User: What shape does this take?
Amino acid sequence: MCLSVVAKIEEILENGEAIANIDNVKKTINLGIMASEIEVGDYVLIHTGFAIAKVDEEKANQILEAYKGNVV
Assistant: This one.
């Protein structure tokens, strides 16, 4: 089973990485396969330290609420 988490991009670094906010925890992630598509403020799904998909804000908020047990 694979698990990914939603994070908001806070800063894009010059080395193909970014600083992502995962429930108020900042983590450096790799944008390798998505670098040209991602901007500060975007939400992404992260799996094993890599951004694997961009998620719109509405869907990201639904997922984040589900993490908290407040499924809408």
